[in-house]
Amino acid sequence: MTAPVYLDNNATTMVAPEVFEEMRPYFSELYGNPSSLHSFGGNVAHALDEARRKLAALLGAGEEELIFTSCGTESDATAIHSALEEFPDKRHIVTSSVEHPAVLGLCGHLEKQGYEVTYLGVDEQGRLDLDELAEALRDDTAIVSLMHANNESGVVFPLAEITEIVKARGVLMHTDAVQSVGKLPLDLGELPVDFLSLSGHKLHGPKGVGALFVRRGAPFSSLLIGGHQEDNRRAGTENVASIVALGKAAELAGEHVAEERERVSAMRDRLQEELVARCPDTLVNGGAAPRLPNTLSISFGYVEGESIVLLLDELGIYVSTGSACSSDSLEVSHVISRMKVPEMYAHGSIRFSLSRYNTATEIDYVSARVPEVIKRLRELSPYGRE
Amino acid sequence: MWDYSDKVKDHFLNPRNAGEIPDADGIGDTGNLRCGDALKLYIKVEEVNGEERISDVKFQTFGCASAIAAASALTEIVKGMTLDEAKQVTNRDIVEYLGGLPAPKIHCSVMGAEALQLAIADYRGETLEVPGAGDIVCKCFEVTEQQIRDSVADNNLTTVEQVTNYTKAGGACTECIPDIQRIIGEVLAEKAAATSDETPGNERDAKIRRLLAEQIGPALGAHGGGLQLVAIEGDKVVVAMQGACAMCANVHGTVRDFVQKTLREEVDESISVEVGG
Predict the structure, then answer these.
(1) Nearest Cα to Cα of residue B38 among A282, A328, A350, A383
(2) What is the reported pLDDT for A385?
(3) Rounded distance, CA A265 to CA A291, Å?
(4) Which of A311, A326, A383 sits opposite B62 (nearest CB)?
(5) Which residue of chain A is at minimal alpha-carbon distance from B28?
């Protein structure tokens, strides 16, 4: 029995069994508060140190440069907030039009408060124009926030080149690396970003935990104020079990990054080849750009995404869509529309996102079933006929 | 995840009467690619004992699960009906047949009803009034002022959100929301005038109307809100809340402690104000 096949790993991932084992005792046995003076709490504090060490190792960061947060969104908000608090006279932010809602929503909110935001566009392959970035930077730019890899298209922005341009202008650089940490090798010793956000549940850790990298010497201003946790930078009792889990997930991710690049990307490439070969009138979004090894975004012409997702659901295949009907907004996903996918295709955009837990047999099953579903819906459609 | 009824799921997974009728007597074509859903409805009409009946009907849908289910349900509803009966079918019949649709999906049933009217008109050689581009309020989904007016009037809609659910208007760039708000206000005002003007010379009602329009409305407007008189039924004054008020968690407090209080003080102690449409 092949199904169910979970190919929605950019939405969230399975907690790795080793990760779950590691976090389990911190609910029932080792439940001390790491801030306590007694050894029962102190031992828990050591576990947090250990998790921080593991995550720092994955990123090539210093342990004191990491703050545990509750999620990617909190990390993004903290980074941008820090820059704005540090430079009250700088009222300009640069980001892209294809960022995650965690950044786009915040920027929209800040615009209402009088900040100015420049949204960089992308080309049809989802790529940034670095000249446009250079031109967007101003003397009053407080921070640039650009994602490392896009959650929908999987397109990877050239972070090293971007950071070089931004730092040359003396502007703070934040990257939302929620989708790339664990999937792409990253060395913050070599990459001089000031802030980097990541999230536990995208790399086989649990939901409800994230981290923010803050480079030594970079300005910082807490979002949550109160207790002394996280070296006075993030108040609130630590989510110990989940932080321990994130440490373990980071350790495993480090061990699997090479596999992700080779085995997972080989499966993704095969799925892409099969689907393009078996389904006429399809477009691979970002196919000519550098992409995450696990992500395949395909737009199927003449059919609508929600229908595809729900028919695949019936077959035990779990994927996601950027179609209008899948969201409250009634609009095609901002990423798909910014990439100027033609209307005939845009509504049929499907994201397949793999993980190291997927198998070749599963990919065979999906490669066989998806074309049947597309064919069935095209037979219902008034479009795409001779 | 959308919360679809079993009936919607069934009609989505096993659509009835899917396909085309090459020699159809009438075709109704509605929706478009830009909106992300489209429906082409084919009808075959037979004359039996002087009555025109829909003897066969088929559909083709480009759209989400509920768009497919709504079209499938529509074909089951109208098959065998006389044209006069079919002309009376509305989107609410489709929603009812399906055991309900999630609010943001109501427009799928509206599309079904539209396609049916277009197919009947096509068979009869009539042209349904196609509003000119100048009448388009929502540019994203090409929704006209008349379509919004009709949906507000027919379904007693009072909020922009409801209009979006029924027509999609305002669901994308949101630029036309002030226009939608204006249209809702106008339609409700027309309705209110039609219901309460029947007692001419009623000075009390006139005073209520004046206070709402000149004092209470502008005061709420200063906070981004607003209200519209729906009806005056004896001592009961029914209003529809708009703008920020419509979204406010404390809307009933505002109505009681401000709107009702003002009317009681200025007009009559026995007045009660209710929110409705």
Answers:
(1) A383
(2) 64
(3) 10
(4) A383
(5) A382
Residue A30, number of CB atoms within 10 A of its CB = 16
Give A173's strand partners.
A144
How big is the CA angle at A205 (ends A103 and A293), to the nearest 5 degrees? 70
* Structure ipTM: 0.90
Close Cβ partners of B229 (under 8 Å, ≥ 6 residues apart) = B188, B189, B192, B208, B209, B212, B213, B237, B238, B239
- Which top CATH class is B199-277? alpha beta
pLDDT of residue B199: 55
Chain B within 8 Å of A112 (Cβ-Cβ)? Answer: no
Nearest to B114 by CA among B203, B41, B187: B41
Q: Would you state the CATH architecture of domain B6-124? A: Alpha-Beta Complex (3.90)
- Contact call for residues A19 and A248 (beta carbons, < 8 A): yes
Four-point Cα dihedral B180, B181, B182, B188, nearest 10: 110
Q: Specify the CATH number of the domain B131-195.
A: 1.10.10.1100
Whether the full predicted model's pTM is greater than 0.90, yes or no, is no
Catalytic-residue membership of B138:
no
Residue B238 neighbours by CB under 8 Å, 6+ apart: B229, B230, B231, B232, B273, B274, B275, B276, B277
Q: How far apart are CA B83 and CA A264, in angstroms?
A: 58
- Please write the tens of the pLDDT for every residue from B125-137: 988 765 554 588 8
Q: How do the domains of chain B map onto residue ranges?
A: 6-124, 131-195, 199-277
